[in-house]
Design a protein that fits this description.
The protein contains no helices and 18 strands. It is mostly beta strands. The model is unreliable at about 1-5 and about 15-40 (pLDDT under 50).
Amino acid sequence: MMMIAIGCFAAFLIVLGESILVGKRKNQSFLAIPVTMEPSSSPSSTPSTSPTTTNFPSLQPTSSPSAFPSAAPFVLFTYGESLYTDNDLGIQISVGLTARQIAQSGSRVRYANGERSSRRYHGMMDGGVAQLPDGGYTYLSNAEEPDGDGGVYGLYFNKDGKIIDYKALLTGTSRNCGGGGGMSPWNTWISCEEVGGGQCWQVEPNPDSPNHNSPKATLLGGRNGGEYETVAVDNTNESKPVFFVTEDLSDGELRRFEADGNGW
């Protein structure tokens, strides 16, 4: 299992190592045998059933909780606890995780085959991850640069988690945000501009899609757009998905937009 953590200037790949179990209860099973309170006056017609014994735990959980507490201690961690410092990277990460740097702002990205990207890695990162049909995935990252230097960029991994490409997916925009919830139900990336009259752009990360090289302005922004921060979608009713867009202002709005269908 992998997660991407980001900073303003470098991107790190966080890999979940050994699992940490907190407060796990032991599996217990019980065999219920009915007994009489008084001895019978005559012998029974069939022999009694002897209880079974086994050296293995039951495969099914019990229907009621154990009468005794688990012997395993319960440990509650608060922010800042259970961290260690990776001196090579100069970061602190949780115990049980490892990290490696995958990109650096202003530097070319190194691919798995030893080559480097033609484009230098962007700055002011803000992003998330999208799955691809071939089993790989894309780290989609907004650039919060001002004055038309923002946009969306994709760092592409194959199914083995190796970097194979880095490309621009949207350029010429300003202060792109949306990393807090920018994925649509149809697996496109929605990137919002955090400027007055900002636009929300839809980007297709899948290289095999006909819309891959055609980012699209949405009805969420434009002339009446706001200084947008992020977007989330309620797709409970697929014929009328509801978009919620926030603004990064002290008196900003939460906007609600109801679409008339799913897809690009």
